[in-house]
Amino acid sequence: MSEADAIVRWGKLLLAAGVLLLGSSCVGVRQINELAIVTAVGLDVGKKPNTVRLSAQIIRPADARGQTGAPSGGTGEPIYSVETEGASIFDAIRNLGRFSSRRVYWAHNFLIVMHEDYARQGIQDMVDFFTRNHELRMNTWVAVTPDSPAELISTITGLEVVPGEAVDSLFRSNHVAGLAPGSNMRNLEESFLSVSTEPILAKLMLRPRGISNKKPEEQGSLEQVELGGAAVFKEGKMLGWLTPMESRALLMFREKLASGIETLPCPGDQDRRLTMEFKDARMDVDPGYSKGDIHYRIRVKMDASIVESGCAKSIASIREEAEALLAAQVKKRIERVVERAQREYRSDFLKLGEVFRNSYPVEWRGMSGHWSEVFSEAETKVEVSVRVNSAVLKAEGTGVR
Amino acid sequence: MNRLAAAAKAVLERKIAPGLADNEAAIDEVMGNCADLLKRSFLLGGDRRVPGLLVCLDGMADLGTVEAILKELLPFAEGSLKRFPDDSEVEALPNFYLSSASTHTCETVGEAIAAVISGNAVLLFEGYGSGLIANARGWKERNVEEPSTENNLRGPRDGFSESIRTNTALVRRRIRDPMLRFAAMTVGTRTQTSINIAYIGDLVKEGLVDEVKRRLGRIRIDSVLESGYIEELIEDAPLSPFNTAQSTERPDKVASALLEGRVAIFVDNTPHVLIVPTFFWQFMQAPDDYYNRYWVGTFYRFVRYIAFMISLLLPSIYVMLVSFHQEMIPTSLALTIASGREIIPFPVLLEALIMEFAFELMREAGLRMPKPIGQAVSIVGSLIIGQAAVQAGLVSPFMVIVVAMTGISSFAIPGYTSSLAIRLLRFPLLIASGLFGLLGFATMAFALLLHVLSIHSFGEPYLAPASPYRPSDQRDMLLRVPIWMMDLRPEFAQDRERMEGSQMPKAPKEGQR
């Protein structure tokens, strides 16, 4: 074969490749500016029975980001909130296409928030839809609200331009306040699929927290989204709520919460307050098994410091009492959440089943089928030890040290 | 072969005749009435007054040297030849009377004319059947200047010029080793371009020099105007966009290549010298790496590798992510990109192609333009591309950043000729990823990788020492280890030991001074 032949052959190959490339006409292409990027989704029960009302917060990038050198026409609103109804979630989303000029795009969704009523009816559909869709990210936050989800996702906060982004940052820093679980699609699905563990979702609500700059005398006239508390589930249906303080104890079980603050009455003086911050809290759950009975020994060790003291006595003198008070308080909270899980909801959202299975895999096999009954009968013993190692205070009750 | 060429060929093969007039006629017949041909007849000193003829080319031969030769031969000039030796041959003339540095005799008209054309003076005498060639070469040439395409901060500033002798001397000055050899060849039937193959006899890989000579000897071409002609005719991978023969203007690069056991090909009339075998990684290495401290050298090598990745991949990755895989962009970034693209009328692929083309246009225009206009064009170009296009809503600000990054990165690659290959390869990658997203990008990138893996340069794999993996050569690929650790030459060199080991300097301990 001569050189010229080789070149002709290569030329033909290239030509064929070129025709193939052009013939494909950019299959599957969708430009980023042709997408309606959803940043938050609300789910509610529809007006008619057996329908779903879906509200979506769609971002308007040009206005959400402002001028980035390019001129951009716009109404100035960073988000476009819409609502549809349908027989199922998928149906509702398809109905979204009736009026959305752009293709609805879910991959950048920050938040899925369900109304309490919707959650009580069962979240199987929702988990199914939002995990099967390959575009969706598993780190989307999931929450339940007693207020209107549509209103909640379109409430603009003072700091962020996009509400979905605001809730995203709220969730990211949830360990600062430590009052709600950081529930996202991943751990929801994990608990949802687990035989023993039941899902738990964070609670979002609208509270009049914002102060209008124009009318500062009307305190708290602007509603803001607040994260606190949790929704308890069993067998895919919501059962009820946990208070924010119960959620803190829950976080110790589920997310290894290591720090937080507690306000206590002063030792020997119920009217004055002592605020303590605990750090490096470590929880050990030891399951035990004897003759068909399961018992748990829950031990918590923590270091604490006194961060605010209104007590009349010197810190040195109340230190040991403060330790005991804090230990009792934490113990009370843990016992409370365990009590609610075992007796009230009979739902193992504390992952105690997993702990037991890891230690007693053989025994587990016999009881996995009726774990929720076994769990609610289990005995628990909570031990808390606190060590106050620093009083980061200058002022001491009535004067400066 | 036409009639004129046939006639000239017949004359060239003729022996030099004893009759001076015959020879003059023969020269005239071949060269015609050439404007720069200088013929000076004279009478040789001594009793016999032998008529002689000096032939040279004005401009190729140094007239001062020619005059000095004549002065020694003319009878009445002071200190000149007083008597012509009766019976001796012309060959004896230089032994007694000519002080020229290099002389030899010639037997045919062809040899005489070849000597004249290359700048020598040819002396012919009545009654003698051979001519005498005296070296009188001397022409105007550019000075040794700083190389314009390969700059550095620390290191020698001299660059090759157009004269092959100057160029070989620049290398010889750096390597005063008797084993440094220059083998001469001539390529080009009309241009008769001199080519020198430089190598160090005891370092170069066995057989490499013969292979280079074989490939050069195979060339049948009328003209060689630049080393690029040679490069394309001796390459291993003639269809590849990558160049498998490195070209450089820097004598220090050539010297270092020779010391690693490679071969350099000098071509007359060009400052670009070829180095073979060539490895891909060489294009990422600059002489500064070795002249600066090794920390700096290694760091900037990494900068260059990143620049290489950016200049090859960044536009494709951007196009791929923005038009196919938006879920792979972090949300905040996705929103920013989307906001910049809100009013852009083109798909991302077209936008990228337009901007890349605009950039290449500016580069090419900037290169070809007469220097005084350069500034005007660069101002207009950068304003149009950077500012006006964005404000008019034709391209997104992000695309401007991507293209600018790509352009700057491609200039950071020291081997300018190889950065051209990367600039070309960007386009197939860009189109493939714009048409098929990640699938097209990955396919094209792998095709490219397989291609680079498959090509060789004078028998050496192009990607060595990365693939095939050569452990001891790693010291000078990604990293630039300290000089005291580079004790071995590359694996293909004959004699691998470069220096004695363990020469890491140590400060003397206190009291031992």
Structure description:
The complex is a heterodimer of chains A (401) and B (513). Chain A is of the alpha/beta class and 401 residues long. Chain A folds into 2 domains: 31-67 and 76-242, no CATH class; 244-401, Nutrient germinant receptor protein C, domain 3 (GMP Synthetase, Chain A, domain 3). In chain A, 35% of the residues lie in helices and 33% in strands. In chain A, the strands form 3 sheets. In chain A, strands 1, 2, 3, 4, 5, 6, 7, 8 and 9 form a 9-stranded mixed beta sheet that branches. In chain A, a hairpin with a 2-residue loop joins strand 8 (222-234) and strand 9. In chain A, helix 12 (352-359) crosses helix 13 (361-367). Chain A starts with a helix and ends with a strand. Chain B has 513 residues and is of the alpha+beta class. Chain B has 3 domains: 3-134, no CATH class; 164-278, no CATH class; 292-461, no CATH class. Helix content of chain B is 44%, strand content 12%. Chain B is built from 17 helices and 12 strands. Chain B has helices at residues 3-12, 20-31, 63-73, 92-96, 109-117, 164-174, 208-217, 227-234, 251-259, 287-291, 294-323, 331-341, 348-368, 371-391, 397-411, 416-436, 438-454; strands at 37-43, 51-57, 103-106, 121-125, 131-134, 180-187, 193-200, 246-248, 263-267, 273-276, 456-457, 460-461. Chain B has a 5-stranded antiparallel beta sheet, with helices on both faces. A 5-stranded antiparallel beta sheet of chain B has the order 6-7-9-10-8, with helices on both faces. Chain B has a two-stranded antiparallel ribbon with strand order 11-12. In chain B, strand 11 and strand 12 (460-461) form a beta hairpin. In chain B, helix 6 (164-174) crosses helix 9 and helix 13 runs antiparallel to helix 14 (371-391). The chains are: A alpha/beta (401), B alpha+beta (513). Chain A binds chain B through residues 7, 10, 21, 24, 26-33, 35, 37, 39, 59, 61-66, 68-73, 105, 107-108, 110, 135, 137, 162, 165, and chain B through 239, 322-324, 326-327, 329, 331-332, 334-344, 347-349, 390-391, 393, 396-397, 431-432, 434-437.
